[in-house]
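Q: Here's a chain of 375 amino acids. Please give me its 3D structure as C-alpha cells.
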Amino acid sequence: MLYQSLLQYISRQMVPMHMPGHKRNPCFRMENPYAIDITEVSGMDDLHHPTGVIKDLMERFRQYYETRGTYLLVNGSTSGNMIAIASSCSRGDVIVTDANCHRSVPNAVELLGLKSVRIVRPYLDEEHRVPGPIDPAEVDDLFHHLAKSGRTPSAIVITSPTYEGVVSDIKKIAEIVHHYGTILIVDSAHGAHLTLASRTAGLKLDWPKPATTQDADFVIESLHKTLPALTQTAILHRCSDRVSEETVMNYHDTFITSSPSYVLMSSIDQCLSWQEGPGIRTFLQYDKNLKDIYDAAVKTRAMADGTHLPGMNLLSPEGRDPSKLIVLGDGPTIEGQLLGYRIEPEKVTESYVILMTSPGDTKESLKYLTTLTIN
C-alpha cells in the first residue's frame, strides 16, 4: 500500500535535499487536513469566480509580490505555463521556447496548435554540461530573423532560474522582445523564494532579483518547490497590462481543475502568512547556513594516510540562485555516497547532482552537509 510505503520511507529519516520546500519540517503543520477538505460551500468562495476570501487572498499576493494580478494554482506551475501561453497566443502563432523548458511548454504548444522555435543555451560549465543563461544577443538575432521572414513571435517562454539555479538577464530580454510586441513569459517555478530574499536585509550570499521585478509580462512560481507549501501549490503573476485580467481568468478557468483543493489553497494562504511574518528571520539564518556550506566546500582530495578531507566539489553560486547546491563529478557515484549518508538528492545527471535546499531546511540538516566527504 502506498500510504504504508510512505510511512516506512519516513521512518528511515532521510535528509530531504529535494522538493517540496517545507522539507517535512515539523514547524510547518496543518491540523487535520481532512476536516477542511471541503467543496464550494457557502462563505468559502469559489476559485473560478472569486468574490470573497479567495479573492482577498489573491489581493494579498498581488500586494506582496507587487504585480498587476496574482492567481492561485492548485495544478502546479504546469497549469500556470499553459494559462500564460494560451493568454498570449492564438492558434497558428509562432512562439519562441527555451530549449531548457519544462515539458508543460511543448505540451501547451501542441495543444494550442502553435509553431515553436527553440532558443538554445550555452553551457555555464562545459566540462560538466551545466546549462548556462540565455544570451540576450541570441534573442535579438533570432527575433530579427523571424520578424524579417514575417514570423514575429506572439510570445517567448524563458526558464529563470533553471533547475540548476541559473538566471538569465530577464530585463534585457524583455527590452528586446517588447520592441517586437512579443509577450515575455518567465517560468520561474524554482524562484518563488526570491521575493522573500529581496526583502531580507543583511544577507551574506548574492541572491538574484525575482523575475516579477524584471519587466516580464507573466511569471509563474511554484510555492511548493522552494517555500513551505504543499506539493502542487503555485502562483501565476500578471506583471503588465499587455494581457487583460479577463483573458487570464478565462484561461485560468480552462486549465484549473473544477474541484480545486481547499487544503492546497489553505497551504498557499499559510505560505504567504509565513513570508509576511517569520519568513524574513528564517531566511536570514538560512542564508548564513548556506554561506557556511559554500565556505566548507573544498574539493575532496586524498591524504597520504588514505583518509579524505571533508567537503564537496560545488559549482560556484556566482550568477546563480545559491539555494541549489550543484555537486560536480560522476553523478551516480555521488548519489550512492549521498544515500550512504542518508541524504536524498533532487536530481542526478552523469556529471553532477543537485541538492535542493530551501528555507524549510532545519539548521541541523544544512550543518550536516558541511561534514560530508564526497569524492
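Q: Can you summarize the key feature?
A: The first helix runs from residue 2 to 11.
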